[in-house]
Amino acid sequence: xxxxxxxxxxxxxxxxxxxxxIIINFKGFFFVSDLSYWSIGLIKQPYRILSYSFVHxxxxxxLSNLFGIIVVRYCFINLxxxxxxxxxxxxxxxxxxxxxFLFILDNFIFYNxxxxxxxxxxxIFGTFSFILLSSLYGKEYILNIFIGLKKNNEIYKLMTVFxxxxxxxxxxxSISLSGHIAGILSGFIIFIL
Length: 193
Known about the structure:
Layout: H1 2-27, H2 32-35, E1 37-38, H3 48-51, H4 59-78, H5 86-109, E2 116-117, H6 121-137, E3 139-142, E4 145-149, H7 153-169, H8 177-192
Antiparallel strand pairs: 1-2, 3-4
């Protein structure tokens, strides 16, 4: 039972991603664009703030983000995570912060109010950047909640590689550089909290 409690924080977001993938791609109740981040549509359709992170354009996209969740789990185990809800806390914090950064980038810097974006990778990149700093400095608390992450040089090296490769990968066509960068910045900010 204790093992299941520890895994719930990874099972819930994975299940939501998989469920929405099935609903969209096999049941046809929605289109990907109906639930995606759309900078100009966030004001009129605020549900998009939550939905876009759990929607994926195809099966490869879904698998790559599920792999990211597995990497996060591995890193938390090696950082001696003491809190069984940290990943869920991070998701809850990352979504609005990342969305805020995306909104600013799209509407005031890149002037792209019709930018559409989907996927859990912004959350993954935010968590990776949080893990990077936690593995370097350690992190005992987040918003007065004990998490007990310890320094770990191996995880620091792993996150350096994953984030570096991820940023390079973000320059490929149809990959959202702004989504990944917004996620990374959000993770850094959450580490400071």
